[in-house]
Amino acid sequence: LYFRAGKENPGVFKSMAKILEGHVYTIGNLCAECVSFKYPPNAPCCCCHHNLYNEPDFAQVQSLLESVCHTHGFQVIFLPKFHCELKFIEKC
């Protein structure tokens, strides 16, 4: 995500266009992001943000919390935010 030492602008964050070009995408005249980020499942890639969102290298990466916990042998489970109306005990 950052330019390496010895390259142009070392340590500077790459743009979305540069990242996509590294993954063999042709950018052309794609905008950075569409107005609303609501796409049908099989929609054509209309912007750089949509391309990166669907790229497996970015979509399936572990968070820092997950990687640290897995190295120490802990399992991470992400649960939905607690809401009193979803409480199972009160439903009975």
Characterise this structure.
This protein is mainly alpha-helical. About 35% of the residues lie in helices and about 0% in strands. It is flat and about 55 Å long.
Number of domains: 1
Counted beta strands: 0
- The residue ranges in which pLDDT falls below 50 over 5 or more consecutive positions are none
Q: What is the typical, i.e. mean, pLDDT?
A: 75
Integer-rounded radius of gyration: 19 Å
Which of globular, elongated, flat, extended, rod-shaped describes the shape? flat
- Please report the distance between the alpha carbons of the first and last residues: 50 Å
**Percentage beta strand:** under 5%
Largest sheet: none
Helical proportion?
25-40%
The helix/strand class is: mainly alpha
Question: What is the element string, with H for helices and E for strands?
Answer: HHHHH
Q: What kind of oligomer do you see?
A: single chain
**Number of continuous helical runs:** 5
